[in-house]
Design a protein that fits this description.
The structure is a single chain. The chain is an alpha+beta fold. It folds into two domains: about 1-30 and about 150-225, no CATH class; about 55-135, no CATH class. Helix content is about 30%, strand content about 15%. The chain has helices spanning about 20-25, 60-70, 85, 125-135, 135-140, 145, 195, 200-205, 210-220, and strands at about 5-10, 15-20, 60, 95, 100-105, 105, 110, 115, 125, 150-155, 160-165. The strands form four sheets. It has a four-stranded mixed beta sheet. Strands 3-5-4 form a three-stranded antiparallel beta sheet. The longest helix is centred in the C-terminal third of the chain and has 13 residues, at about 210-220. The structure holds iron/sulfur cluster. Iron/sulfur cluster binds near residues 31 and 52.
Amino acid sequence: MSDPGDWLKVVDDEGTEWSLDAAFLRSNWACIWGAGCKGIEATPDETSILGCCSVGAELLDDDEAMRIAALAATIDHAHLQFADELAAGGPYVEPSFGDRRHTRVVDGACIFLNRKDFARGAGCALHAEAIRSGESITDWKPAICWQLPIRVERPAEGAATLRAWSRADWGPEGDTMAWCCTEQAEAHVGEVPVVVSLREELTALLGEDAYAAASRALADGGVSPA
Ligand code: SF4
């Protein structure tokens, strides 16, 4: 849905030059989890409401694995559908996909994803706890979870690109995915452009000043600032 080559440049407070996919930031992509998302398995599935959690959350490194484990240990078990599995003493993370590490997958999805049959409702338990605590989801969730569908790459020291995930970014698994929401018209139904709807996430990545500069530049191109 975005037009490759429509790049907006901003520099953050640390001197990193960001190339931003302006077409994606102007687009009205929206996460439609639970409202038509077909999941990322080979078979389209709008009813299980697993979204992109069906393979667990890939963790950046040991520090992130320890941070997520420590935060999860603070959540009241009444808010965790899979509290028994966590309490059983097994690891919160497991190696998978070669040497990459993921949150544990239980019953077909991330152990932290409460399912639609959970009495307190479906959704990410880490996300819900961040909201209950009045804290940012960027502090509570694995980076890949709060960033999706934003994809950041750092090709060189002092340079970064920010764009939408594409099917190809999922690797060989991407070829068989039933759904790549950034490429589907069904998920371009947001009431505001991505630069507005993902303000918290973009600010966490770019910093306040670079986010404001990007927002202003996009507004000059016809997108209302947040
Ligand atoms: S980000 Fe995309 S794949 Fe993931 S839950 Fe939302 S719509 Fe579904």
